[in-house]
Specification:
The chain has 134 residues and is mostly beta strands. Helix content is 8%, strand content 48%. It has one helix and eleven strands, in the order αβββββββββββ.
């Protein structure tokens, strides 16, 4: 699958309820765990999602326009935002993306084992969860 099509599918498949399947490399699965309006932060909402990468799975370059807090549950993932060094995260490790960050690398570090992580996003109410970046 080419990256432009994959990025388009990512944008088209993200919503705020139910199970979300991302067609990125045909190996990433995203599930919405919780969505909540944040009345103490007018115009903001919180969203919690789980992301499962199959062996060798990844996501295309994207951004969230949200504060994104990542917690690794299983396996190892490689993350990098523009202007920062690539990092490999293991279970119990965390990662942060600001609303202006461009997420260059998000992939499973293993070609043989799955990886799973939780993402908590604080974003503008109604804004897309993920936006592809070319």
């Amino acid at each position: 699958m080419n990256s432009a099509l994959s990025a388009s599918l990512v944008a088209a498949s993200i919503c705020l309820s139910g199970t979300l399947a991302i067609a990125a490399e045909d190996t990433a699965k995203v599930k919405s765990l919780m969505s909540k309006d944040l009345p103490h932060y007018p115009g903001k909402e919180g969203l919690m999602i789980s992301v499962d990468y199959g062996p060798g799975g990844s996501s295309p370059i994207h951004k969230h326009e949200a504060d994104a807090f990542v917690y690794v549950l299983e396996g190892s993932i490689v993350m990098q935002v523009k202007g920062e060094k690539e990092v490999t995260l293991s279970p119990g490790d965390t990662f942060y993306e600001s609303p202006s960050d461009i997420h260059l690398i998000s992939r499973n570090a293993s070609k043989t084992k799955p990886a799973k992580f939780i993402v908590v996003l604080v974003k503008k109410k109604g804004a897309p969860v993920v936006m592809p970046v070319k």
